[in-house]
Design a protein that fits this description.
The complex is a heterodimer. By secondary structure, chain A is α/β, with parallel strands linked by helices. In chain A, 46% of the residues lie in helices and 9% in strands. Chain A starts with a helix and ends with a helix. Chain B is of the alpha/beta class. The longest helix of chain B has 15 residues, at 6-20. Classes of the chains: A alpha/beta, B alpha/beta. Chain A binds chain B through residues 117-119, 122-125, 129-130, 134, 137, 139-149, 151-152, 170-171, 174-175, 177-178, 181, 332, 335-339, 342-344, and chain B through 51, 56-57, 59, 61-62, 65-75, 89, 92-93, 96-97, 100-110, 141-142, 144, 165-166, 194, 240-242, 244-245.
């Protein structure tokens, strides 16, 4: 295989400039259909509103913690739009917006973060693995799942989300290597939001771009402007198609920015300048897509207003649903350790029962 | 009845599982055409093809993580960690994912997978090849931990482990790979899983052992019998689930107990057993529960391993300290009083 085929574009692929005007994209990528771009816009509006609502819920004590993805909506939504329902997604804790956009129940998505249980949704039914808190461990699970789909004769693709910090973990590298050796239909999607909690990218990696980490493993790679929905969707479409049609794994790095602190419990002013954040405000993915679609005459004021109304309705529903206290059954503590509780767990359950009856 | 070495019995179990259930996959380092460094997977790639039994890149977290994904996708991976200490890179995958996925997902996902680990010493292995790592796994909720001591148990426990709905750490005492034993003719699937075995009955004291120390316990019991002392030997077979009932019944009968493990003693499985026995058998005990273990040292170089490993003599010394004769203590008290 020629090395050139694997190499990412030397600069991030971009379709739309920060001011919303179209730029000449590199050859080999298609502008996604208009209807998908409009759908992406609507979902980004809802996603951003959901994100803001979730952060607000932490202040009201309804969520224990929330890692915001504000500023990363192009990645969150494009990742979901590039997949079919029967494809699998292996997300991280920062990808709640993507999960909600995939149609998962928002309360079930937030169950982890409100402290109700470790995973609130059904991964088998939704084909979404539990949001992964340990860094990069999910990437190798994604390879295993991709190999399972191949073995069963399904043409499904698996997409693993990961952040810039996660690419320093050994499991990420093992996953890339295994995926390449097994020729697994998996797309690794790195949302490089520039910070791993407080540590900036420059201290994380000396690579010219994280996308170059694929080439050493024989994986085709690309880098894309992560705040340009048109570009992210176009590149992910190509990556998914590559994997689905037997081309093997694909690595995509999206350059984006985490506008909010790591979580509501973090203080970002300790490690980055306000000015830097303001600069990224100008690169906002949602405003950029709106300007682009308006400029092309396919998105009108009514449609924008309708999207925001839908988002408000969605947020109101989330507020209402999250207002109810989650139900907790102490005896469930013993139910899912093994398929059948051991004698020791049955004894401990009885001990807890005697405590609760006191 | 067939006589097989433990290695041959394990090989037969893998072969029969591959034959009976197409979801079973065997993979790891060198398990393909080579048949594994201990030849446990000998001939499997040839018989079942590269799709069913295959070599992986040399990365243990990757092997375990790949198995997690395949098990989520409906397969039943049986993977090999080449040596005990080589499994440590996979510890995060095992502790954070293998052990917890059923729990995290409220039972919506389960991981029917087996991680085979050749463990412990006694074969003159160089460093990092002889660790007794069972306590790490036994201390992790969500993992079953199994360790056979006979060829017959090796076969059936591995068959049970592969059929189990939950992840099983299958620890193979590598110094027993070449020990031969008769394998039973009838199907005794699940007869031993979660149940300890009384390998020798006796009334004077109970020796509790598992894996590599089971033959040590039997040897000690033979020697004790020649001196007129009648020892019962209990082989745990599965550390998790732990068979309290069999151990407790034995110690209540004999009134004395020595727990034998090859691993270093501090915070080990033997400590847990000793605690459980004294919690449940206090009024039956005529002497403190004693432990016979390896020393609290990193596994020694081969030239010194015989000094480290618990042997029959160390076990018999412990049996002698089970206060069969109270007189020395009375004399001691008398000396203090004068």
């Amino acid at each position: 295989m020629s090395v050139d085929v694997l190499l990412p574009s030397p600069v991030p692929v971009r379709f739309v400039a920060e001011d919303g005007t179209a730029v000449q994209p590199p050859t080999g990528y298609q502008v996604p259909e208009e209807e998908r771009l409009l759908e992406a816009f609507r979902r980004m509006v809802v996603g951003r509103r959901f994100d803001r609502q979730a952060t607000a819920l932490t202040k009201q004590g309804r969520l224990a913690v929330y890692p915001s993805s504000r500023g990363q909506e192009a990645c969150q939504i494009a990742g979901v739009l590039a997949l079919r329902e029967d494809d699998w997604l292996f997300p991280t804790y920062r990808d709640s917006v993507a999960l909600v956009s995939r149609g998962l129940d928002p309360v079930e998505v937030l169950t982890l973060l409100r402290g109700g249980w470790h995973c609130g949704y059904d991964p088998a039914a939704t084909r979404v693995a539990p949001q992964c808190t340990p860094l990069a461990t999910q990437t190798i699970h994604a390879v295993g799942m991709a190999d399972a789909l191949r073995r069963k004769g399904e043409d499904g693709v698996v997409m693993a989300f990961i952040g810039d910090g996660g690419t320093s973990e050994g499991d990420f590298h093992e996953a890339l290597n295994y995926a390449a050796v097994l020729h697994a239909p998996v797309v690794f999607f790195v949302q490089n939001n520039k910070y791993a909690i407080s540590v900036p990218l420059a201290k994380q990696s000396a690579a010219p771009a994280l996308a170059y980490k694929g080439i050493g493993y024989g994986i085709r790679s690309e880098q894309v402007d992560g705040n340009d929905l048109v570009a992210v969707l176009s590149v992910l479409d190509a990556a998914v198609e590559h994997a689905r049609t037997g081309g093997g794994p694909f690595l995509v790095e999206a350059h984006t920015y985490r506008m909010d602190p790591h979580t509501n419990a973090d203080d970002a002013s300790r490690y980055r300048e306000k000015q830097e954040v303001e600069q990224w405000e100008a690169a906002d993915p949602l405003a950029r897509l709106e300007t682009y679609l308006r400029g092309r005459g396919v998105l009108g004021a009514d449609a924008v207003e309708a999207a925001h109304e839908a988002a408000e309705k969605f947020a109101a529903r989330v507020r209402e649903d999250m207002n109810a206290d989650p139900e907790a059954d102490p005896y469930e503590l013993f139910e899912h350790v093994f398929a059948e509780a051991t004698p020791q767990l049955r004894e401990q359950r009885a001990l807890l029962a005697s405590e609760l009856e006191d | 009845m067939t006589t097989l070495s433990m290695a041959q019995a394990l090989n037969a179990a893998l072969r029969d599982a591959l034959r009976e259930d197409e979801r079973v996959l065997v993979f790891g380092e060198d398990v393909g055409p080579l048949g594994g460094v201990f030849r446990i997977t000998d001939g499997l790639t040839k018989e079942f093809g590269e799709e069913r039994c295959f070599d992986t890149p040399l990365a243990e977290a990757g092997i375990v993580g790949l198995a997690v994904g395949l098990a989520m996708g409906g397969f039943r991976p049986v993977i090999e960690m080449q040596f005990d200490a080589f499994a440590y890179p996979a510890f995060e995958q095992i502790a954070s994912h293998v052990a917890k996925l059923r729990n995290r997902t409220r039972g919506r996902l389960s991981l029917p997978m087996v991680i085979r680990i050749p463990y412990a010493g006694g074969i003159g292995g160089v460093e990092h090849h002889c660790d007794s790592s069972e306590a790490y796994y036994a201390h992790t909720p969500g993992l079953k931990v199994v360790t056979p001591a006979t060829a017959d148990d090796a076969y059936w426990l591995l068959r049970d482990a592969i059929a189990d709905p939950d992840p099983v750490i299958f620890m193979e005492p590598k110094r027993l790979y070449w020990s031969k034993g008769e394998t039973s003719a009838g199907d005794r699937r699940a007869a031993g899983f979660g149940r300890a075995a009384v390998l020798r009955e006796g009334g004077d004291a109970t020796l509790v052992a598992y894996g590599p120390t089971v033959p040590v316990a039997l040897e000690a019991a033979e020697a004790a019998a020649r001196e007129g002392r009648d020892l019962e030997v209990v082989d745990l077979r599965t550390i998790v689930p732990f068979d309290d009932a069999t151990v407790v019944a034995s110690v209540r009968k004999t009134g004395r107990c020595v727990v034998i493990q090859e691993a270093q003693g501090f915070a080990g499985v033997g400590a847990e057993i000793a605690a459980r026995v004294q919690e449940r058998c206090f009024h039956s005990l005529a002497a403190p529960v004693l432990r016979v273990t390896g020393f609290d040292i990193p596994y020694p170089p081969p030239i010194l391993e015989h000094s480290h490993l618990p042997d029959a003599d160390r076990v018999l010394d412990a049996v002698d300290r089970l206060q069969f004769d109270d007189e020395p203590d009375l004399l001691h008290l008398a000396g203090e009083a004068s």
